[in-house]
Write a structure and sequence with these properties.
The structure is a single chain. With 221 residues, this protein is an alpha/beta fold. It has a single domain, classed as Vaccinia Virus protein VP39 (Rossmann fold), CATH 3.40.50. The protein has a seven-stranded mixed sheet, with helices on both faces. Helix 4 links the parallel strand 1 and strand 2. Bound molecules: 3,4-dihydroxybenzoic acid and magnesium ion (MG). Magnesium ion binds next to loops.
């Protein structure tokens, strides 16, 4: 099935995805530097992020897990020139690559990359930090429950929270799989269920060039 899923993603991309030199150069530089591409979002998912931001006229975006900053480019494309992105990356090698790609892109929006464990960085932000309109959680899956709670501290009513990789080819249903990353995702589902600060939540499974995975989406009450 994987070949067909990839072929269909390629078909969608060839019809609906824009030619954008910034996106192309980001992927090219990432490959040139020897980094894998499976950690990055697929283009059609990047476009979904962009459209959710556009639909809700978001201006302030938080991203946990920068990697190559390819998703950051999609987030930036959606923002007006006075938009702001705070993106946090825990791994030094990924942060260096992400910063290089951000610098090369010469984006008009302010994109601030901070290096360190996302939870530590979020805890170090002032309590009165202006809330984010859109939060993309895509860092270490083990910490998703903590990232969700911390995200809520920097949210307002209507903030959208998007969590990547919450299906993992069905590993979440495999009881024998007790990897911290999978347990973290399961705990995230339990936390989202009837969370007093969430208006509504869902998750969708996806297939495509990145395999079988999915994302969760929540709106802050
Ligand atoms: C992995 C992480 C991701 O965020 C992703 O989109 C795909 C894979 C990983 O850690 O394997
Ligand atoms: Mg991801």
């Amino acid at each position: 099935m994987q070949q067909q899923w990839s072929d269909i993603d390629a078909y969608i991309e060839s019809h609906l995805m824009p030619e954008d030199p910034i996106l192309t150069q980001t992927l090219q530089n990432t490959a040139d530097k020897g980094f894998p591409d499976h950690l990055a979002v697929a283009a059609n998912q990047g476009m979904l992020l962009q459209m959710l931001i556009q639909m809700n006229q978001c201006k302030r975006v938080l991203e946990l897990g920068t990697f190559a900053a390819y998703s950051t480019m999609w987030l930036a494309r959606a923002l007006p020139e006075d938009g702001y992105i705070l993106t946090i990356e825990g791994r030094d090698t990924h942060a260096a690559l992400g910063q290089e790609n951000i610098d090369n892109a010469k984006l008009k929006q302010m994109v601030e990359l901070k290096v360190g464990r996302a939870a530590d960085i979020l805890k170090s932000l002032p309590e009165n930090f202006e809330p984010f309109d859109f939060i993309f959680i895509d860092a270490d899956k083990q910490s998703y429950p903590e990232y969700l709670e911390l995200s809520l501290k920097f949210s307002r009513s209507g903030t959208i929270i998007f969590l990547d990789n919450v299906i993992r080819a069905g590993d979440i249903l495999d009881e024998k799989n007790v990897k911290p990353s999978i347990e973290g995702i399961r705990e995230m589902y339990r936390l989202m269920q009837n969370h007093p600060r969430l208006l509504s939540s869902t998750a969708l499974q996806t297939v495509g060039s990145k395999g079988h995975d999915g994302f969760a989406l929540a709106i802050v009450k």
